[in-house]
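Appendix B. Extra example for self-study. Work through it before the problem class; the solution is given directly after the inputs so you can check yourself.
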Amino acid sequence: MIPGQFVYHRPASIAEAVAVLAAHGDEARPLSGGHSLIPMMKLRMATPEHLVDLAGISELKGISQQGQTIVIGAMTTQADLIKSDLLASALPIIRETSLQIADPQIRTKGTIGGNVANGDPGNDMPGLMQCLGATYHLSGASGERTVAARDFYQGAYFTSLDVGEILTSISIPVPPAGHGYAYEKLKRKIGDYATAATAVILTMADGKVATCSIALTNVSSTPLFAEEAAQLCLGTSLDAATLKAAGEAAKSISDPAADGRGTAEYRREMAGVVTARALAKAASRAMKGA
Amino acid sequence: MTTVSMTVNGKTVSADVEDRTLLVSFLRETLGLTGTHVGCDTSQCGACVVHIDGRAVKSCTTLAVQAAGTAVTTIEGLSSGGELHPVQAAFRDNHGLQCGFCTPGMIMTSVDIINRHGAHLDEATVRHELEGNICRCTGYHNIVKSVLDAAGRMTTSAAAE
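Solution. Structure tokens for the complete assembly:
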């Protein structure tokens, strides 16, 4: 299969990209790594008349630390995330998550910006960004603005991005040194989206959970920030009863579709299972001073 | 239509193509380099793997226009002077192929793996790194053996130089 007809644009700056997108309105789509959009175009599930490739915009690439914030350019690939020494020490959950996305060749092309902006509930980074309390930086014809990852997702493939707007970078507050983390993804095979997945970041003090953040992937039409499940963990040693209660809280907000990965009931159950596993792994890493 | 220029296997090529032309179609149909295969056509099987600027990518999910200005290497570009590339030789010697359909993609991926990991390559790493390539014949054992054998040959010859 080949995609339908379109006109390819390759702007060299954010301003130029925004101008091209504004000129063509909803007939244009930005292209980042292309490993979601091009397959959809081959299947005629997406038929943009103008494709605006962001690969030529150097200001969209790179990972940097600014005080207690890590800033990642939208066109930074998953392969770049995996090999970043800065992320490996400050935000190791990003490497752990990236390694569970698709396969090595796709990670060479796939970008963090494309992954979070596409609005596909199967993507892994949106849930992780909600867990981390990340902020998305958007740029459009009417200027720049920021939206919290926890407020960005409105439905499957439906986000706060306006027509003609692009996501330019993501800023992430650095969790405290010695925090525990885990991204637990249940999937049928390499390259598959999650049957259910959970991201956890927590800190422990005197054997008890001091702070905790949890988000879920692919068990609803959007990623889910599991605030109640995280609250239940605070002040506990994450004993079996707490893990079960947190899993139940995660299940209670899940609303997965029945699909090839299983029935809705099974996938909701798995949301509880991966949540308990992620909490246990994160706590164990925090206790070891991971 | 866009005029696309890139380096393919060391030669500069240029052609007018439709913007929607996939890189794999450009290689196979415009340039006649049919060693790169189309398997699943959905970026899962890895039969279409080529290198863009030295890194393995799936050419069935890459537009030719996206590769403009880059250096592309295909399976046809690996051997030199009639000598098989060490990875090709290792696949032959270790029975790393049966029907051969997946082999060009397997070999292009393997060259990238060895270039990135060098002498530190172990079996577990090879198996993880081959996750984007599917073979329906061999059961993978001989492919993994081939990659480890080739890694040994390439790091030995690099050390000798």
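Self-check: Chain A has three domains: 7-52, 59-173, 180-289. If your reasoning did not lead you there, revisit section 3.
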